[in-house]
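Hey L., structure's done. Input below.
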Amino acid sequence: MRRYGKHTDEDDVRIRPNRKGNRPRTNIRPKHEDATEGFVLTVDRGRLTVLVEDRTITAMKARELGRKGVVVGDRVAIVGDLSGDKDTLARIVRVEERSSVLRRTADDDDPYERVVVANADQLAIVTALADPEPRPRLIDRCLVAAFDAGLEPLLVLTKSDLAPADDMLKTYEPLGVPYVVTSRDELADGDAADRVRARLTDRITVFVGHSGVGKTTLVNALVPDHQRATGRVNAVTGRGRHTTTSALALPLPDAKGWVIDTPGVRSFGLHHVDPTRVIHAFPDLEPGTEGCPRACSHDEPDCALDQWVADGHAEPARLYSLRRLLATRERREGD
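Output:
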């Protein structure tokens, strides 16, 4: 074995040849300054459907993105074959900064966050008034997730022909959440879709709800050119069957907004939510927290919000609603 001294000549140094014959690896990555902007419509088993200008492109995530996930609603930079022709495949090389991220966990003990959608403006929480029975705890959890993500919530109550909406509306009135009440007959003749569509103009709205509440039926009414499969409620369990298996972004007629239909959920974990951010959705209560002790949960004897409300700065119902939402992490949705 040859040994080299301190002052070897470079010509004496043996360079091991590259057996594969390709270029050596480098940490310098291309900037892809000529990449085209796209909007992710759906993700299915590693293949992404992306809207580029007026056509849809099938793409895959570039290796250089590593573990960075790409979700529906993402604005991305895309290179490669952008013709949209059959059997062509482009590459997503960059995910642009997100304006909002709606997340959930499987349950409150699961630290693994699942990103539902990106860049949405509004969260439409769809729940039936009957068949299946409404689950207020799930609604509360979706509201907390919306407030945490900075999305404006919209409550959509379906099947009002089977049960009145008065009690449900009374529960959420102190929160000031806008709402739309629909019936099955109104969905059939288009009146319900028109009222909901008026709330979606110029926004990206993600629809969330448990199976069987009529979420996908409503989306089909809003975007009649894109019909998704719907299911029935099981007569024994009272639960709906999952018919929507992946999130899908659909353009409203006349390009006046987007709706994102998501699979039905049976749980909405809030492990990722910082409770201190929920107070930001209560501007009438937030100033009253200045006198709270450090790390106040806003539901303890020394909480300054009690005095703030007693002094007439906010309605008691608002404080009750805040504490109900903050308590959702300690309660299961079926409670």
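The two ends are 75 Å apart (CA to CA). Confidence is low (pLDDT under 50) at residues 233-242.

-- N.
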